Amino acid sequence: MTEKGERCRQHYQSVYERNQPELSKGRALDECLHHFLDQRPAGKNLSAIDRARGLASALFWLDVDAVAQSELASLALSRVLHFDNAVSVELLLHLASHNPETLRWAIRYAKLFERTQSPLWLELRAGLAGDEWQVFFGVCDRLLDQLKPFDELITSAQRQLKHLSLLELFSYLSVLAYQAFSEDGSNDPSGQQWKVYNRIILNKLRACSEEDFRLSEARLGQSLKRHLSPIIFPESSNSDVVACRQNLESLAVLILATQERIDYEGSIDWFCFDNECRYQLKPGEPVIYNQSEAGTERWQRTGRKNDLLWHYWMNRAVQAFIDSGMAEQIIGSPENHELNQLAYIKAVRSKLQLQQIYGLADRVLLNDGSQVQLHHVLLASELTSVFFQKEFIQPFQSHLRESGVLAQALGRLAMNGMLSGENRFPMTWSEEPEKIRKITGWTVCDEYPKGSADSAKAILTFWTSDLKVLSQQLKQQPRAPAPRLYEQPFYKIGRYSYQFPWVSAQQNNLTAAINNLRRVNARRADMQAETQRVELALAESLRQRGFAVEMGYRPQATEEDDAGEVDLICHQDGVVLLLEVKSGYIRSSTHEVWLHRTNTLRKAAWQLRRKRVAVLSALMNDQDLRARLGYQGLEPEADMRAWIVDTSIELDGQTVDGFRVVSREALEVVLRDEQHLLMPLDQLDDDPSTLFPDEFTADRFVEIAESGELWRDIC
Questions:
Q1: Burial of 438 (0-12, 13-18, 19+ CB in 10 A)
Q2: Cβ-contact 489, 499 below 8 angstroms
Q3: What is the pTM of this model?
Q4: Would residue 9 be called left, alpha or beta, if left means φ above 0 and alpha means ψ between -120 and 50 degrees?
Q5: pLDDT tens digit string along 628-663?
Q6: Which pLDDT tens digit goes with each residue over 139-181?
Q7: Using CA atoms, how far apart are residues 98 and 94, in angstroms rounded to an integer?
Q8: Which pLDDT score, from 0 to 100, does residue 18 have?
Q9: At 660, which helix (H) or strand (E)?
Q10: φ, ψ for residue 426 (rounded to 5)?
């Protein structure tokens, strides 16, 4: 044990022992494990492996009852298992004998079984012979075996495509991507196909050389002539047609195999992160199955809530659009007016949601120090979608209906484009000045009557992924978040900016903007200010409903604990709300939701538990606080509700460590009494019902928020 590891061990042991007299063994251990999960003890000299070694050497792991009663033991152990040399095999064998389910879940959470050559995994397999463990090992083997044939196909296809440059791979991918469009274009922009393309591109970027990013006009023309023209203009060349077809076939195999692998990865994630998932080894039966359908139903219900909230913000945007007087104006050319009008309304919707729920300001500060109007960023993305839908996807589908042949339809599209002096190839490209010129027209406003080239450049920067920089990042920091295709849909290669029409026409621009800001660029300078504005906006909504609201209250620290700053304390008519506000991004998988629950929301619940104790004491002893809140009660514990308010919708209505999670958007609808706006525009009632038939009261507000009544009968 190193000195640093020993320091960590002593910290965890002391937290456990300090809490044990007052709490049960399991709760005392959980209190200690919260410290570990939140990277405590803090210190620049302490690393994750120091903490893991310190935790793994603590004596409380030998207390069978403490481990059995703990809710966080498996989660904490899974973090330890990320290292091969942080925990002794002797301790793991002890846990396997006395707390087997705790260890099995830790292995599942850590995906230890995927590291088939891990010394820990090999020694566990050698040391455990019981039937239950053999079934567990067999299930792990079976899950991995399902990946092998697809990995072989992927490796073979990648070898056959290795000679292609990044640009050449883009050419073939762009052709095959058009196959996903049905006649009505109802492709799912968040579906599996984009995950496949994303995976293929990221893998290519990991293998790219500097040469891939040195693009000149001559190299670009030569590449297109050899790899794209023979496909969509087959009569223009014959020497390259055979090679092009082979490349297309190899890429088609790679796409299909990658698709299958991602599907089976979903099964592994289900096994690892869904607490409803059970396993078995029975002939003719699936190896994993759900104990109940509760998890699936929750996921489906989340999707329905998302759809209803989409209608809500669109309805608010339509009203805001009408109120602004824009409904009376022609936007762009008369023939494009209706599409442009819809794009403008969608931009208004996104701006409303980003400002009210996510705390964005009127201007976005970029990493290079430049600023741009949020409305312009959002409008540009919506108008881009309109452009690609109208000029690329719809004509392509028309040509496809006539010819029935993909290559012919793409050839007609490209040829018609060339005849009119426009680029209508399966992917588009232009140099930065040309891109800026086209975007400038979308920045016209009172401030810039002729548009602003500087704003256009900032918009392009916001939506651009520099693939050379990303390639270097993937090689140096493989775990860092990489932008997905739709999150930054302009791709910079050398001096050229590329776009895929099939992405830009179909993407969810709101999700793209939120995740660009919150997932890809989570360390932006504006993040802290945005978090404060999220709290300010909620505080203002509560004040408008008659609540007295205290923001940023800091209870007096005690010898035992310093609870820190409290986001919001609210009071009305004897009802006290203690709110911990969390703001993140939009998640697209059950694994991401699990990470959110076990990281952000677990920590929020732990903070809320400590803050609740401190605030209850303050409500009795801090007369200034009581006066500011207008609180005169003598039993604050009976009067208080403590919630985690989360910008994400995925865990709305669930509890984390005993605390209810309430969606910030759901609170917005309830506080404004606008349940009727959750319906499509053409189904709105002229005489809408109200959630507060008598009048707004704090008791009724709490009842709606805690019962999920908002969604009843409509979700």
A1: middle
A2: yes
A3: 0.93
A4: alpha
A5: 999 999 999 999 999 999 999 999 999 999 999 999
A6: 999 999 999 999 999 999 999 999 999 999 999 999 999 987 7
A7: 6
A8: 92
A9: strand 659-663
A10: -60, -20
